[in-house]
Design brief:
- The complex is a heterodimer of chains A (211) and B (118).
- With 211 residues, chain A is mostly helical.
- Chain A is 79% helix and 0% strand.
- In chain A, helix 2 packs across helix 3 and helix 4 (62-86) packs antiparallel against helix 7.
- Chain B is mainly α.
- Chain B is built from 3 helices and no strands.
- Chain B is elongated, with a radius of gyration of 26 Å.
- The chains are: A mainly alpha (211), B mainly alpha (118).
- At the A-B interface, helix 2, helix 4, helix 6 and helix 7 of A face helix 1, helix 2 and helix 3 of B.
């Protein structure tokens, strides 16, 4: 009787990978709104103290920022290739190697970011007593937002590096948990972190260059 | 199998082209930032960022190929963000600006110790 009833239950119409993907998209939606508040704060500061924001953004390190953007864009391409490979069982190990490469690019990004922070600290650009650009009203606010936004982004990237590293390791060992669907979902997170940086790059590094 | 190999190669080629386009757009936004265009500099920077985001969303994240519910979730997120931005700017655009964003920290006058003579 029971088994008959189970058989009569219609199969769910959504494939499990669709449900899993939907979960990640909803998580990314909350992340978008989380970062959105900071972007709104930036827009507010930029419209109220344009001179201070322009002056401050000229002091960010544009070469390091551009290099880091290129690193992240390349890592995203590797993750997309890994997702393409993971769709077939025989390419699972190649997918793992691509993910490991992307994670290494992420580590390189974090290392460059560390170098940048150290330079900014020595140049007195960290908000607080002795701030180097105190004569420009709003410059300190710019650097406060700069450190909060890039710091939060770096934290997300660190989580992403751990995630990709774990899947690279799992794919290399052929672990069943490192399947195609989960790899693709981890990739979605990585691409999102990339998009946040894509928007941060012109706002933090480029707006004052021509002035 | 042959068909699969062809579609795999096509997908990889598309990813490679998207990567090249992303790097080209990066250099374009870097170059345009040094042209004295006034307010247009910010607009160009943001438009290029939007193009790059669209490439990542469409070709790397496969948003177009995703289930309708996932696309709906993404659209609701974008819509909510725009709504909150709009509502916030109504408030901030109509508020009187304080003369200074942040005041430099200063040493307060030391409190008199041991009473003030009263």
């Amino acid at each position: 009787m029971n088994s008959a009833r189970i058989e009569a239950t219609p199969a769910p119409r959504d494939a499990p990978q669709d449900t899993a993907q939907l979960g990640m998209w909803i998580f990314l939606a909350t992340e978008l709104l989380f970062f959105g508040g900071l972007f709104a704060a930036y827009a507010w500061g930029r419209t109220h103290w344009p001179e201070g924001f322009t002056a401050a953004s000229r002091h960010t390190h544009v070469v390091l920022g551009t290099l880091n953007t290129a690193l992240l864009l390349s890592s995203s391409a590797l993750v997309a290739l890994a997702a393409a490979c993971a769709a077939e069982e025989r390419r699972r190990r190649a997918a793992g190697r691509l993910l490991a490469g992307a994670a290494l690019l992420g580590v390189a990004f974090l290392a460059l970011k560390g170098v940048e922070y150290a330079k900014e600290w020595h140049e007195g650009l960290f908000p607080g007593p002795g701030f180097a650009l105190a004569q420009h009203v709003g410059a300190e606010l710019f650097f406060m937002l700069y450190f909060v936004m890039t710091g939060l982004h770096a934290l997300h990237l660190l989580v992403g590096v751990g995630l990709l590293g774990a899947f690279a390791w799992g794919a290399r060992r052929g672990s069943p948990w490192a399947g195609a669907t989960r790899m693709e979902i981890a990739g979605l997170y990585w691409h999102f972190v990339d998009i946040v940086w894509i928007v941060l790059y012109p706002l933090l590094y480029l707006i004052g260059r021509a002035a | 199998v042959k068909h699969d190999a062809a579609s795999f190669a096509r997908r990889c080629r598309r990813i490679g082209l998207a990567w090249a386009a992303l790097l080209a757009l990066l250099l374009l936004s870097l170059g345009s930032a040094y042209l004295p265009l006034g307010r247009l500099n910010v607009v160009i920077g943001l438009v290029i960022a939007a193009l790059k985001s669209a490439l990542v969303l469409g070709l790397f994240m496969g948003l177009g190929r995703s289930a309708a519910l996932a696309r709906l979730a993404a659209a609701v997120a974008a819509g909510t963000l725009v709504l909150l931005f709009g509502l916030s700017s109504v408030d901030f655009a109509t508020r009187v600006t304080e003369p200074a964003a942040l005041q430099p920290p200063q040493q307060l006058r030391p409190l008199r110790q041991g009473g003030s003579g009263r």
